[in-house]
């Protein structure tokens, strides 16, 4: 692993993951603007969220806290995932 | 046409109980058959536990040729059907074979064999352009789910309408429901109705791992299936089969057969909500319950026992509790409701028929099987779940419900001799 | 059947097809009527080396243009076909959201035999190649046979009776029978049919053990039922979905009945026992005609099962004689599926769609790639045959021993008192 910046998941990464893992197309700018809204605003369901978490776990080679699947908004999700990655979860 | 439909025979292959006496002994004593998976090495899986059948085909009269030709789930069905036909003292040669049908359910069919051969032809998942020369000769039978109904029909000389029903985890209830319709509406006089699944394989375990639907309680397998308990954490995979002999009531009477009970009503609806998700309100399941009750010309207050889907996932048990309350009203609180999945696990498509078989036996013995492992009440699940110990009770009408991936919501009402309307 | 259930007629109001000939009934019918064939060498990645050479593939199917991304990622190709065909059928029927009285009045029923094979193979490869954590969250809902019914129900908000039969070929007609029965029991509308996508490499490997599978490498000769050159059947992908409605409900929203499903019969005579299928198919036909209140001579056209295996073709020709008597030699028989291949459960559903179109256009489409027959039937070959058609009989048999027959009448049929 390199420096900590590589461990951060950005809003762009999340938008890309939403498309790839869940088939949800969302403009990163809009995702950022409405990051406090529920996942259903963007059409993401519980299975899609599970797929995104699994993909992140594979990419970072590490398990992530179960709590992530209960995050209800992109904002909360990014805070939890980046917190966990920063701690070297 | 609205003919009455009797259950005249039952056969079961369930974890911890192959054959009716063993199955009922397990249920009525509240024993559990869940354990660490032994059918393959589950290392690396999130959920490493299941309810497995200790099944030795030759001990149940299956010869080598049948074992080679038929997958495990088909073998289960053949053994269960043999027991049911014997139990019904049904001589199919003395019945018009064109008026005898078969309706067998399975959620995943030959998946286990498909995976087994896939590993061979793909060199352990290394190649997309698989090598057909490594496939086993009966692979096409695993690929074709109608094999299930075909094998059972062939074994018993059935020549009427035959079908494999595959509505996910309600397959076993729907197979009974379709058979009920085919008799009550006059298309057949006798129908072998049931379901079978043997899904304990890496791909099926892994796909439920991926959505965290199965229990990760690997350290306490015997107590891992905890329907309605506050600490429930998912379902425990199972396997097995059950087959009933359903018969038009007059047909059964004419040959002097004993009728255990009648199938009095059946209904199914889609929830059009989510492939795996369930609402908190349970509207669509309630609709199915209401439909089955209406067909049986009964009211929710007539139900003496609810055999729950009770898978042990957070959302299912909550959903189902809400649905039963919606349909039975205040009477729901006075109605025992239990889940045998606490003991025999969740055998996907098979379990619906195994649960109907349990209802038939409950009516016959006037005993309600318990919900094993139920310790801690959940405020969202506030009905009487018959904790841990079977209960004697006068039973006239019982309800069995099911819920499946794809949004299927089904309900069957059974009426015992005490409740038979004249 | 009781007089009470008689009063609720199940009529066809919409057709949606996804086929090797093309997508939608216009392009499909054009090729069918001309007797065109879309059988071709298998072109799928990873299949080049397999001993199945010829198949009916659906080309030019743009799933991205027809189905939302959130559905696409969680479904196999067979469900893409089903969702697209269902939408085409609903459009064809002019059935929109405003036509739904109650969500519980619209059901979905499909038949499926090969499931989500391509999706399943991908996930198996991840599991065995990389480990269990690489299996995605959609495997549990994409591979199983119920996927299409569930997704069509969810996409459209249909909460009526939903079901699935996992039959082989004959299951397609059985699904239509289930839909008809649901209508008679009280459901207003059922979206019903079957689609298959059995041409992924591992799915093909699974089919190679069928003794009935054609291994010919010549698209013109691979599937020639009822001839001395019959050498098996050619598998295909695609299928059809139909909108079946209770007649009065259809008329109330201004839709004209295009055909009525009047009779069905199903029997079982054992896997690959083709000689025995003669009695089974004859019995199924007689049952279907009796339910339809039809005499044998009322049948204006037969859409044959046409397996392409000599014993099976012989059994079918004899079954027609057994069930229809002298009329069997006069009634035109056709098998347009020799131009598309057999898409398992979907094959007879596509035949039903073709039968509805044939009755509307007053034309019997021919049997592609077949020029004569060695059986005593009037097989329509070469050119389409214009004629008035009021009653069609559609036949299907499954490799595992199922026989089914369905009777369709053009337009609506007055209920007997």
TrEMBL record, chain A:
Organism superkingdom: Bacteria
PROSITE patterns for the chain: CARRIER, PHOSPHOPANTETHEINE
Keyword Phosphoprotein: yes
Keyword set, alphabetical order: Phosphopantetheine, Phosphoprotein
Gene3D superfamilies associated with the record: ACP-like
Pfam families per the UniProt record, alphabetical: PP-binding
Listed InterPro entries: ACP-like_sf (IPR036736), PP-bd_ACP (IPR009081), Ppantetheine_attach_site (IPR006162)
Ranges of residues in domain Carrier: 8-89
Protein name in UniProt: Acyl carrier protein
Native source organism of the sequence: Streptomyces spongiae
From TrEMBL, chain B:
MF terms (GO), sorted A to Z: 3-oxoacyl-[acyl-carrier-protein] synthase activity
Highest taxon in the source lineage: Bacteria
Domain Ketosynthase family 3 (KS3): 2-416
Cited SUPFAM superfamilies: Thiolase-like
Gene Ontology cellular-component annotations: cytosol
Gene3D superfamilies in UniProt: 3.40.47.10
One of the protein's GO biological processes: fatty acid elongation
KW Acyltransferase (keyword) present: yes
Keywords associated with the record: Acyltransferase, Transferase
Stored PANTHER family: 3-OXOACYL-[ACYL-CARRIER-PROTEIN] SYNTHASE, MITOCHONDRIAL (PTHR11712:SF336), POLYKETIDE SYNTHASE-RELATED (PTHR11712)
Protein family per UniProt: Belongs to the thiolase-like superfamily. Beta-ketoacyl-ACP synthases family.
Record's protein name: Beta-ketoacyl-[acyl-carrier-protein] synthase family protein
Lineage of producing organism: Bacteria, Bacillati, Actinomycetota, Actinomycetes, Kitasatosporales
Automatic annotation (TrEMBL), chain C:
Ranges in a coiled coil: none
Record field: transmembrane: none
SMART domains: PKS_KS
GO biological process: fatty acid biosynthetic process
UniProt domain Ketosynthase family 3 (KS3): residue ranges: 7-410
Family annotation (Pfam families): ketoacyl-synt, Ketoacyl-synt_C
GO molecular function: 3-oxoacyl-[acyl-carrier-protein] synthase activity
Record's keyword terms, sorted: Acyltransferase, Transferase
SUPFAM superfamilies: Thiolase-like
Classification via InterPro entries: Beta-ketoacyl_synthase, Ketoacyl_synth_C, Ketoacyl_synth_N, PKS_Beta-ketoAc_synthase_dom, Thiolase-like
Record-stated family: Belongs to the thiolase-like superfamily. Beta-ketoacyl-ACP synthases family.
PANTHER family linked: POLYKETIDE BETA-KETOACYL SYNTHASE 2-RELATED, POLYKETIDE SYNTHASE-RELATED
Protein name: Ketosynthase chain-length factor
